[in-house]
Amino acid sequence: MVANPPRVVVLGSSFAGLTLSRLIRQHARDAVDLVVIDRNPYLTFVPNVQMEVLADRDPLESMLLDTAPIHARDGNTFLNAEVVSLEPDSRRVKIVPSDRPGSAPETVSYDFLVVALGARLAYDRIDGFGEHGDAVSSAFYGNRLRRRLRSYRGGPIAIGSARFHQGLKDKPEWLPVGLAACEGPPLELALALAHWLGQHGKGDASRITLFTPAAMIAEDAGEEIVRRFLEMASRMGFGYLSNTQDVVRLTADGIEFQSGASLEAEIKLVLPDWVPHPFLEGLEISDERGFIVTDRRMRNPTHPEIFAVGDAAALTVPKLGSLGHQQAEIAARQIAIDVGAVGSGEAGPEYRPEILCFGDIGGHRGFYIHSDTWYGGSTSVFKLGHAPYAMKLAFKEMYFRTGGRPPAFGVPATHLLMDHLPGE
Ligand SMILES: Cc1cc2nc3c(=O)[nH]c(=O)nc-3n(C[C@H](O)[C@H](O)[C@H](O)COP(=O)(O)OP(=O)(O)OC[C@H]3O[C@@H](n4cnc5c(N)ncnc54)[C@H](O)[C@@H]3O)c2cc1C
Prior knowledge:
Elements: E1 7-11, H1 15-28, E2 33-38, E3 42-44, H2 49-54, H3 59-62, E4 64-66, H4 68-74, E5 77-87, E6 92-97, E7 106-109, E8 112-115, E9 120-121, H5 129-132, E10 133-134, H6 139-150, E11 157-161, H7 184-199, E12 208-211, H8 223-236, E13 239-241, E14 247-250, E15 254-257, E16 262-264, E17 267-271, E18 274-275, E19 306-308, H9 321-338, E20 355-362, E21 365-371, E22 380-385, H10 386-401, H11 410-420
Parallel strand pairs: 1-2, 1-8, 2-5, 8-19, 10-17, 11-12, 11-17, 12-13
Antiparallel strand pairs: 3-4, 5-6, 6-7, 9-18, 14-15, 15-16, 20-21, 21-22
Helix pairs in contact: 1-9
Bound molecules: flavin-adenine dinucleotide.
């Protein structure tokens, strides 16, 4: 046992925070006192919620992973509390226990801090969303969509994103500016919903219009892949509206956009803006929106004892879980080096983002995207078939069984396999 090991506090225990905590323990072993704070003692496996919804199963029953026992097994202290403020100069965070209203605030001090708090999915900034909008980003919204689909009258369906406002302060030149936070989910949902319509005798893809605030949907997947996707979508009969700029309002009858365009829609599925938590705004470690600024080792330049991984990090664009996974590997190694558990030669590669995405398109089929052309690279793989669907299911199984720590070989091996398997 190391006497009085440095305290590492990880804020957030979802995709980025859970995987990071497990990797810190793996690399730094007992050389750290690891404290993990999340308002919820569980993780919602968001990417697969749509599969449960379209199969009319309750995501509350199948998509929640209990995280407290995982931290207990690893010897971490898990605090189920709301983080309410962060003071980088005094190295303290203020928290309020989240299991009982009325709990008193307290402070937790740290030697190293990792911000893995994700972002607010700002449905509350879309006028009319509460009454007329739908989503698959949580179990609550998933179940609401299940109810909406049961009473669906066969009208038009609109699926797309509100405008994402990326921070530009200290943005490196190699990182492009995205106008939508995460556009894999609308593509996936549109294809799977078209299959659902056919299966339920309620129509086909021609009922559905995809919309995007940008000139091109899913631009981060690269032009070649999007061109192929749009050709396929147009053959299937989907409508497509680009350059909407932003969503202004949802009504019972449709969606109004900032561009002046509008769409008639009975069901309105919207991915909102990803907005940083308000207490991160205005800190010297944040950009002008509140995303945490880091270098390619996920370390903040003004406070090198602070790291950020996942959706909370400014370098995570688009907001994809697979990017947070890569960053968790990097930050865990940095912390292990800083506390002297491993040598500086163990740093591993720096952050080089690439888009990796498995989508469900209904009928036990899926798509696979592996691309880095948006960041100036040359990888561009797009496949359709049964294998990507199986991989999507298998990843969730592996994630739950390993408690958020898929074996290191699992992730690269999957991509190697997928890149070389023939598609349809
Ligand atoms: C519909 C949909 C489908 C998606 N599909 C995919 C996909 O197929 N592949 C993919 O790679 N990505 C996908 N994504 C993106 C992916 O879900 C996110 O990138 C990922 O969840 C980010 O992980 P994170 O840990 O950074 O943040 P989050 O998952 O948002 O987790 C943040 C954690 O912090 C906690 N927290 C937040 N605020 C506080 C606070 N103040 N105090 C205490 N705790 C707090 C939360 O409880 C949560 O546990 C999808 C997103 C959506 C919306």
